[in-house]
Design a protein that fits this description.
- By secondary structure, the chain is mainly beta.
- The chain has one domain.
- The protein has 6 helices and 18 strands.
- It has helices at about 80-85, 115-120, 170-175, 190-195, 200, 290-300, and strands at about 1-10, 25-30, 40-45, 60, 70-80, 95-100, 100-110, 130, 140-145, 145-150, 155-160, 175, 185, 205-210, 215-225, 250-260, 260-270, 280-290.
- The strands form 4 sheets. Strands 1, 2, 3, 4, 5, 6, 7, 10, 11, 14, 15 and 16 form a 12-stranded mixed beta sheet that branches. The protein has a two-stranded antiparallel ribbon with strand order 8-9. Strands 12-13 form a two-stranded antiparallel sheet.
- Strand 6 (about 95-100) and strand 7 (about 100-110) form a beta hairpin.
- The longest helix is centred in the C-terminal third of the chain and has 12 residues, at about 290-300.
- The two termini are about 30 Å apart.
- The model is unreliable at about 15-25, about 30-35, about 85-100 and about 300-303 (pLDDT under 50).
- InterPro entries: ApaG_domain, ApaG_sf, Hemimethylated_DNA-bd_dom.
- This is YccV-like domain-containing protein.
- One of its GO terms (molecular function) is DNA binding.
Amino acid sequence: MLAACLTNKLSIGLIPTFGLRAPEFIIRRHLLSPSRPIKLELIGHLQKASESLYEPGQIFLHKKFGYRGIVLQRWKGKLFDRNLQSTKSVELTSHESAKGEESEINVYQVLTDQSDTEICNSALKHGITFLPDDKRAFNAIYIVSEMDYVFHDDIIPYVPQDVSPIRNQYFSEFLLSTPDKDPPFIPTDHLRRWIEARKQSLEVTSIHREVTEGIQTTVMPFYMGRRVTEDRKENDVRYQPVLSPECPVFQYHSHIHFPVEWAHMWGTFRFERHNGTSLDVKIPSFPLYDPTSYSNSSNENLG
């Protein structure tokens, strides 16, 4: 039985953008109580968004969800855009390089600020999951709730005001302070070993996108591993997100089991408009497979 984790992101065309220019201040606000005024707190200074790669240790704000985070690892995945593939003209940003009907895109594995993600409420189901090393634990899935994956264009870099810029239980384990360098943090050996041991479940290999009437669906599948199990339960995920100008993005994770080495998955999200009519938003078709079996099969065919 193969297990896979899917990260799904829905967004409407009313994505907010930030018009700030470095080195303007970044202000965080606290609502102390309904009867007391909002408290403002300086958290850092904005940097100019970079077209080049962000290094581990880079502090940032998430453009869509607004939480603070820090980069741990960069993954280069293949982007399959169903809408772009149906046109002759394809325009890519500087960090997406054309490659036939697909392109390459940079995705960052990050630590998130716990207090910020709590404010996101139901719009963000963040976290990273992987199978335990003990294969006897058939039904166990480890969840690291204070991590996320972020696209290059969704990163707003900034210089933090504090030496501990985010609240995260893994911060001191995974990063060392280097105030004389840019970025001011570097990965620890523990982080490198942690990622390498779980690379199979953490690596981003493909991203699939499709737009239906202004609503973009993005899927990132992850191969989690192989287990011998008699689990035959149905894979059913039910959420009721509300997309609006105030909350234009929704993200969640789900896990599926399938008994074959290769499969395809697709579907739709059914939304209800304010006038009572419905809209079916396409989930782009994407493959699910065991990369180790696929690699071995390719080598045999070449031989």
